[in-house]
Amino acid sequence: MNDQIQPEGSAEPEHGALGDADATEYAAFMELAAEEGFDAEEVEGAIGEAGHGPLPVLAVIGRPNVGKSTLVNRIIGRREAVVEDRPGVTRDRVTYEAEWAGRRFKLVDTGGWEQDVLGIDASVAAQAEYAIDAADAVVFVVDATVGATDTDEAVVRLLRKSGKPVVLCANKVDGPSGEADATALWALGLGEPYPVSALHGRGTGDMLDAVLDALPEAPEQSFGTAIGGPRRIALIGRPNVGKSSLLNKVANEDRVVVNEIAGTTRDPVDELIELGGVVWKFVDTAGIRKRVHLQQGADYYASLRTAAAVEKAEVAVILIDASESISVQDQRIVTMAVEAGRAIVMAYNKWDTLDEERRYYLEREIDTELLQVAWAPRVNVSAATGRHMEKLVPAIETALAGWETRVPTGRLNAFLGELVASHPHPIRGGKQPRILFGTQAGTKPPRFVLFSSGFIEHGYRRFVERRLREEFGFEGTPIHISVRVREKRGRKK
Questions:
Q1: What is the value of pTM for the model shown?
Q2: Which DSSP string corresponds to 192-210?
Q3: pLDDT class for 121, splitting at 50, 70, 90?
Q4: Which of the residue ranges 11-25, 286-300, 382-396 would you say has the lowest mean pLDDT?
Q5: HEC readout, 140-179
Q6: Domains of the chain as residue ranges with CATH
């Protein structure tokens, strides 16, 4: 058995969900699962669910009060999206997980889209536009009883510009008499309008069948470009922490505008830069100023574009202004990168301006406020003077290596066996749940599935994650751990 931690892309043959196993190891793993009371389908399903990576994304778009949230509730099979008989109730994008005909996908409910609006309505429109950009396919909802309006025509132009597959939903068709209204929507030029009553469920099955035809089996890989292409690095942080200055310094020329006024950068600027003999694609993003739904105008769009840059990146270099106290905004940005599953490097800028007292208190702040990314490589830099810039690339390479690390199943289970024996789960309610075995379901970031005899508490999961890092590294990457509990059906003999 290969006892080495393998990089992503190992050439070993695949067996089901265990992409790192040879035939003997795969057979041994499935035999172990059977002995512990798990059938093969259950094991493969759990691993596949944890290791699928990002699900295809379906955005539900339309002007206000056409029934988008009602349709979302119908698709997900429960009343979760807020529904009121007045426009503008849904403001932010809200994401749910849905399933139809055995296929899972993410469903994004959006606020109503309107052209030429100001204030909070402009923010709603911006959310919808971002949802279209981030989606693999779109359901465009039109009120068939009203017909196509000027706003609907504007949305059609936006959808055509995006190039995304579109399923046209003619909503509020409650009976055969309304189907003529739906037919009139052929004039929008988006293909067949599907007559639907989101309120009563009429016609939603046919529409969802069309959605599955429009959605890819899996979303396009967004990491990097072609094989061997430049790795994507997103520079993120609060406004005026020095992102543009850092980009200019690593490029050795003025690539982007630098100004003392916070928020100079609005659009992300992609730059191909050679460092250490390697070409990297850096994205200089606009600073995240505060909660997205509270922002207006250009700042609002800047935050959405920053989020999009993180989604397309492999590594997030998070810049912190070391001369100022770590803020709630800093913590929120870190959380965004972690939840996106990106490799992370923490860069503390303006280090050359710190005196001994500030350095002492900064270390205390890092230990308390940024404990969630204690595993991330750290560099103390000065974008103005170029101090320690040579340490940035090694930190990025370290984070990428951790992000792509795969632990062989045999070695992982040997580690888990020793861990459970030396540090068993606490007894709760007279029972002591036990981790029976596990496997790594995927990388980028590393995702593990643990099979257990009972519910594993969150604190014990954190303990397992900490010990995984101590044993196997995983420096610079989040780790996702899911637990599948054995059903109460008795052990197989």
A1: 0.66
A2: -EEE-BTTTTBTHHHHHHH
A3: very low
A4: 286-300
A5: EEEECCCCCCHHHHHHHHHHHHHCCCEEEEEECCCCHHHH
A6: 6-53+405-485 (3.30.300.20), 57-214 (3.40.50.300), 231-403 (3.40.50.300)
